[in-house]
């Protein structure tokens, strides 16, 4: 059997050389070119088994070439590589029929793995037409490897209606990801309806989701469609799904299983023609162990999980994000500002508990409150210090108002209420104790910088007892810190 031939198109000589050598060592025949015209000529002549093309080339955009390749050679797999590294690049590559999108710089082992998978995969039909080209604002900002992984997942999901679960801390952009899945997906022509589970009173949540009939309850003077009906043909975004009460969880599970629902007070089933995207900042597996979230519902929602990294895990994106927010401030009529190198260093050194939302708010304050055209590191330090002080004061005020016993009692009531709503409850004593013990031990270990001897002394525990609790509670241990 002849060796597969790979056609490489990139106007960067060094990349052509590296790819030619790496692919040659892997046992492939390789032909390289700096132009899209030559690549197209080879395609028309029946050359090659797989294409690796750059996006930006002197004579043509590589993305524009993909549909022509797929029409002429439907069995030809195309890998796209780009230094632009944006969500739009990933989406366009996927929707135009690319097998995979690789942001530059990429790992050669990853490239070879993708080449092997592409050659072994069945031929893929031409993707559905991409949405009309627009100059709309980029929905997601960042070129870190963590964000590149998210871009590729979103791009792959634009051709399906799979249910998605987005997990991430507050302020990481979960709704932006949900909107991107909708705006570039098959249901982009339908409505995008967002519901925040934490913001709806418990007694109204079923009516809010599924609607109600006239006379269904006191005050129901007319029929009211719920969010499922409002989202027909589009996407229903269930934000903070971990705060959904048990009775609503049961109804949502039934909708996902049966594909239909009834309004409150109604009898006629209504088809649920929506794509579900859920999001939470909670650890739902822990909620399952606590008995506050249904395991069967979790697996129905967690078909495709997406984890959004906190800002502290992608600090290389902070300069890009900060400048983006300052540009938006200028568009909104605020004075134009520049960031000094020292300011960028301070921004990248922060922990950002509020994540991207906190960074955006900081940029708005700096643009609005200071006359200087250039934002210095000292100004950033001043604003971050004030924000931290305000947050600590607010936390102290809350703690002062709510004694520990009251906080524990509130959570115990939540456990017991879950049992009254039909959720399985067992071993409540052990679970409540574990809920208190875990953060207590974790924070004590953090205070002692991982020193278990000091932590045991602070807790009044035998060192072996502490070790057993760390093991039983599955608490991560930092080794070698004194």
TrEMBL record:
<keyword id="KW-0010">Activator</keyword>
<keyword id="KW-0678">Repressor</keyword>
<dbReference type="GO" id="GO:0005524">
    <property type="term" value="F:ATP binding"/>
</dbReference>
<keyword id="KW-0805">Transcription regulation</keyword>
<protein>
    <recommendedName>
        <fullName>DNA-binding transcriptional regulator NtrC</fullName>
    </recommendedName>
</protein>
<feature type="modified residue" description="4-aspartylphosphate">
    <location>
        <position position="54"/>
    </location>
</feature>
<dbReference type="GO" id="GO:0006355">
    <property type="term" value="P:regulation of DNA-templated transcription"/>
</dbReference>
<dbReference type="Pfam" id="PF00158">
    <property type="entry name" value="Sigma54_activat"/>
</dbReference>
<dbReference type="InterPro" id="IPR025944">
    <property type="entry name" value="Sigma_54_int_dom_CS"/>
</dbReference>
<dbReference type="InterPro" id="IPR058031">
    <property type="entry name" value="AAA_lid_NorR"/>
</dbReference>
<keyword id="KW-0067">ATP-binding</keyword>
<keyword id="KW-0902">Two-component regulatory system</keyword>
<feature type="domain" description="Sigma-54 factor interaction">
    <location>
        <begin position="140"/>
        <end position="368"/>
    </location>
</feature>
<dbReference type="GO" id="GO:0005737">
    <property type="term" value="C:cytoplasm"/>
</dbReference>
<dbReference type="InterPro" id="IPR011006">
    <property type="entry name" value="CheY-like_superfamily"/>
</dbReference>
<dbReference type="GO" id="GO:0000156">
    <property type="term" value="F:phosphorelay response regulator activity"/>
</dbReference>
<dbReference type="InterPro" id="IPR003593">
    <property type="entry name" value="AAA+_ATPase"/>
</dbReference>
<dbReference type="InterPro" id="IPR010114">
    <property type="entry name" value="Transcript_reg_NtrC"/>
</dbReference>
<dbReference type="Pfam" id="PF02954">
    <property type="entry name" value="HTH_8"/>
</dbReference>
<dbReference type="InterPro" id="IPR002078">
    <property type="entry name" value="Sigma_54_int"/>
</dbReference>
<dbReference type="GO" id="GO:0006808">
    <property type="term" value="P:regulation of nitrogen utilization"/>
</dbReference>
<dbReference type="GO" id="GO:0043565">
    <property type="term" value="F:sequence-specific DNA binding"/>
</dbReference>
<dbReference type="Pfam" id="PF00072">
    <property type="entry name" value="Response_reg"/>
</dbReference>
<dbReference type="InterPro" id="IPR002197">
    <property type="entry name" value="HTH_Fis"/>
</dbReference>
<dbReference type="InterPro" id="IPR027417">
    <property type="entry name" value="P-loop_NTPase"/>
</dbReference>
<keyword id="KW-0597">Phosphoprotein</keyword>
<dbReference type="InterPro" id="IPR001789">
    <property type="entry name" value="Sig_transdc_resp-reg_receiver"/>
</dbReference>
<keyword id="KW-0804">Transcription</keyword>
<dbReference type="InterPro" id="IPR025662">
    <property type="entry name" value="Sigma_54_int_dom_ATP-bd_1"/>
</dbReference>
<keyword id="KW-0238">DNA-binding</keyword>
<keyword id="KW-0963">Cytoplasm</keyword>
<keyword id="KW-0535">Nitrogen fixation</keyword>
<dbReference type="InterPro" id="IPR009057">
    <property type="entry name" value="Homeodomain-like_sf"/>
</dbReference>
<feature type="domain" description="Response regulatory">
    <location>
        <begin position="5"/>
        <end position="119"/>
    </location>
</feature>
<dbReference type="Pfam" id="PF25601">
    <property type="entry name" value="AAA_lid_14"/>
</dbReference>
<keyword id="KW-0547">Nucleotide-binding</keyword>
<comment type="function">
    <text>Member of the two-component regulatory system NtrB/NtrC, which controls expression of the nitrogen-regulated (ntr) genes in response to nitrogen limitation. Phosphorylated NtrC binds directly to DNA and stimulates the formation of open promoter-sigma54-RNA polymerase complexes.</text>
</comment>
């Amino acid at each position: 059997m002849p060796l597969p031939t790979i056609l490489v198109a990139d106007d960067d000589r060094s990349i052509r050389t590296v790819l030619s050598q790496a692919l040659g060592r892997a046992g492939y025949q390789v032909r390289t070119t700096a132009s899209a015209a030559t690549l197209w000529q080879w395609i028309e002549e029946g050359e090659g088994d797989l294409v690796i093309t750059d996006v930006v080339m002197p004579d043509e955009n590589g993305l524009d070439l993909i549909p022509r390749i797929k029409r002429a050679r439907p069995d030809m797999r195309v890998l796209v590589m780009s230094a632009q590294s944006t969500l739009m690049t990933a989406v366009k590559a996927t929707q135009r029929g690319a097998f995979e999108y690789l942001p530059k710089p990429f790992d050669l082992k990853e490239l070879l793995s993708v080449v092997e998978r592409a050659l072994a995969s069945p031929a893929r039909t031409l993707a559905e037409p991409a949405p009309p080209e627009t100059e709309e604002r980029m929905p997601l900002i960042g070129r870190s490897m963590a964000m590149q992984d998210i871009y590729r997942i979103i791009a792959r999901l634009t051709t399906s209606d799979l249910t998605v679960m987005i997990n991430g801390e507050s302020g990481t952009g979960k709704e932006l990801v949900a909107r991107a899945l909708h705006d570039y997906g098959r249901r982009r022509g339908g409505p995008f309806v967002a519901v925040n589970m934490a913001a709806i009173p418990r007694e109204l949540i079923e009516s809010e989701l599924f609607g109600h009939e006239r006379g269904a309850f006191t005050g129901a003077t007319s029929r009211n469609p719920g969010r499922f009906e409002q989202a027909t043909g589009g996407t229903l975004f269930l934000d903070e799904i971990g705060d959904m009460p048990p009775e609503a969880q049961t109804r949502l599970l039934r909708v996902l299983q049966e594909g239909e629902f009834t309004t409150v007070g109604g009898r006629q089933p209504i088809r649920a023609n929506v794509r579900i995207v859920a999001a939470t900042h909670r650890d739902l597996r822990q909620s399952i162990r606590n008995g506050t979230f249904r395991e069967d519902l979790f697996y129905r929602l967690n078909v495709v999980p997406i984890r959004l990294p906190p800002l502290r895990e992608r600090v290389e994106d902070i300069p890009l994000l900060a400048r983006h927010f300052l540009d938006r401030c200028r568009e909104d009529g605020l004075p134009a500002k520049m960031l000094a190198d020292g300011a960028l260093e301070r921004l990248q050194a922060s922990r950002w508990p509020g994540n991207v939302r906190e960074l955006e708010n900081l940029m708005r304050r700096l643009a609005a409150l200071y006359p200087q055209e250039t934002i210095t590191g000292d100004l950033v330090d001043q604003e971050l210090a004030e924000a931290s002080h305000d947050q600590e004061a607010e936390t102290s005020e809350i703690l002062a108002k709510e004694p520990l016993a009251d906080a524990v009692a509130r959570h115990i009531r939540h456990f017991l209420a879950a049992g009254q709503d039909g959720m399985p409850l067992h071993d409540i004593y052990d679970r409540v104790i574990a809920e208190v013990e875990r953060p207590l031990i974790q924070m004590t270990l953090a205070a002692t910088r991982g020193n278990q001897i000091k932590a045991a002394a602070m807790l009044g525990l035998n060192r072996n007892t502490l070790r057993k609790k760390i093991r039983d509670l599955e608490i991560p241990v930092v080794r070698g810190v004194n």
